[in-house]
Amino acid sequence: MKRWILQILFSALFVLGALTNSRAAGLIIVDDARLWPGPNPPHPVPPWPPRPRPEPRPYIFAPMEVSYVKVNTRINDQIAVTSVDQEFYNPNPSRLEGTFVFPIPKGAHIDKFTMEIDGKQAEAELLSADKARHIYEDIVRKLKDPALLEYAGRDIFKVRIFPIEPNSKKRITISYTQLLKSDDGLISYVLPLNTEKFSAKPIKNVSVHVDLESKRSLKSIYSPSHAVEVKRRGSTSATVGYEASDVQPDADFALYFAPEKDEIGVNLLTYKPGDEDGYFMLLASPGVDVKEKQLVLKDVAFVLDTSGSMAGAKLDQAKKALKFCVENLNDGDRFEILRFSTEVEPLFDKLVDANKANRSRAEEFIKDLKPIGGTAIDDALKKALSFNTQHSTPDTFSRPFVIIFLTDGRPTIGTTDEDQIVAGVKKRGEGYTRIFCFGIGTDVNTHLLDKITEETHAFSQYVLPEEDLEVKVSGFFSKIKEPVLTNPTLKFTGDVHTTKLYPSPLPDLFKGEQLILVGRYTGKGDSAVIVEGTVNGTPRKFTYEVKFAGENSENEFIPRLWATRRVGYLLDEIRLRGENSELRDEVTELARKYSIVTPYTAYLIMEDEGRRNVSMSVRSFQNFDRDGAARKEASQTWNSFKLDNSGDKALADARYGYALRSAQAPALAAAESAVESQRALGLSESLAVNTPAPVMEAKSRLVQYAQQSQFVAGKTFFQNDKQWIDSAIQRHPDAKRIRVQFGSAEYFDLIAKNEKVLPWLALGQNVRFVLDKTIYEVYE
Questions:
Q1: Whether the Cβ atoms of residue 221 and residue 238 lie closer than 8 Å to each other
Q2: What is the distance between the alpha carbons of residues 114 and 122, in angstroms, rounded to a whole number?
Q3: Scanning 41, 366, 505, 533, which has the fewest C-beta atoms within 10 Å of its C-beta?
Q4: In whole angstroms, how large is the CA radius of gyration of the chain?
């Protein structure tokens, strides 16, 4: 075989300790780095006696960099044509030659493939997964670096690239066509993006643009890997976009979409490992092709705090947001506006039709609002809820009643007791009432607002001082503008029992939006999903046929998504109602198993392992255990989480729980919740003022400890110095142990016999994991 591996860019990254995760679609393997520093500058004649000439400095090879990645994909039903444009940069002063490698999406059937390098057509070779694995393993043997092993189960394209000029850019474009897989009507598309972690620097720009076209109406459109923007262009087409700058992510781009004929598209994905209870994710969406008669008429009460503390930008933004909401009411909706401070002042003192005259009067009322007085929260809620009693005639009784409540303070006038206010809401808010709360600034009582929204099956959002309230409120109202099915319920038939569903109860369904429901199940086989709800007073029932797998190793993101939401629910129980051992223990176990690790859960994991006297050699956070200052900060932060109901930390805690409970994808929720937990630690600029340096350093170390974990192919690994330890080892103290030297014959024999170990071994040269009740210890 032609010699083509002498040095590859990612080995240099490991040797130099400069590995950073970033994104691209393929990577360049440097075949032969003939690196010469160039001609020496002229030297003057040395004085006599001659002085010793200094030794020449050795040249250090700089790995290739990825400048940008641009992906455009067109999907027609199940045919996807993907075009990738990426640019590499050679930072070295010498010419290189190399091989471009592009891992093929798993399960893809390539019908057409073209490639250009610097505008010229290039001949590429397609290697099957078997041949590709030999190449990857050969790299591991020679360079003692297992990083590419995670791709060993895929086919690859490769093409020789020469020359790669010094200090120059090399542009590569690649396009390919594939047939996409359909699973019970849900079509999946995967784009290889994980390979860009081999870029020497974060990539300046990454963009993915997907145009979807379908013969049937598009219902659910979902990405479990990235925060995508979905723009629907009618019922059968949509654009999905993702863009980021200076990024260091580590996942391939995944997209699911469902063309459906039914009014509400319902699709089911399952994951069931062996004898364990299964996990499922159900997607439900009415799409955008909802007929006017199917839209639900609604009543809305806008309740705005105009106390003195709202003066300035907060009130200005709130007024703009209310104006937007009034302008975007549907014909046939009814509304009312109440402002409150020391007293409550309604505009109409009743619900009125959203006609032109009433909208104009509302805009004048909003424009004249002034900040003054205290905060009569209980009186404002009582008055707003009183309008719900007017639903007394058959044609209006079933309308959903929505209260949008905006406040920046705690109750100071009238009833101020948190429990009494919540009890009043519960008593008066029965039926179709939803109270959505917006807490503005850091002086709100987060416990009060969260309990109100919990009682009325809604949710709270908290707006930081540096955030724009108008954007938050108007974005929210756009989503709930057009209800399609209110008070929905769901049940399954057949030999299937479902438990621990999130969200629960189900929220209302809206035009263009989708429900993502996750849960556990026992049993297997065919089942009917029965969705019931109300459309303008008329009960509706929808039935869909689905199948729960008896065993399924695909869709392994579902258990982690379920666990993320479950942890959010449990932490909110602790925050709002108090801690007990059952809640704490379940949070700890789920966080450890599914890498839901933030400073909060890292502290719980460490404390739990100490109580159980887990051997230090397999503890999750060995350095954290030894760091007394960081442990002290972690303990104080956890106590604040349980006790504080207002202030900077309480606001961050509430946002932290919401990020987990409303998770759309595990990795995205992990990133959002990490930001909020760091804010609660006081690590944001606004909170770090006047904090002693040693305390800030201890807080920063705590964050670093929480980041030393990875969720890889269904397992959580914790990094302790150079070693990665599988969290499951703690559950097998008496298991058989096998030591395997990295790069040995036994090492590659283990790979040949067990493909599932490939992503685990790709972590590094020192890895310990459980496989088939045996603990394997890979060592240098």
A1: yes
A2: 8
A3: 41
A4: 29
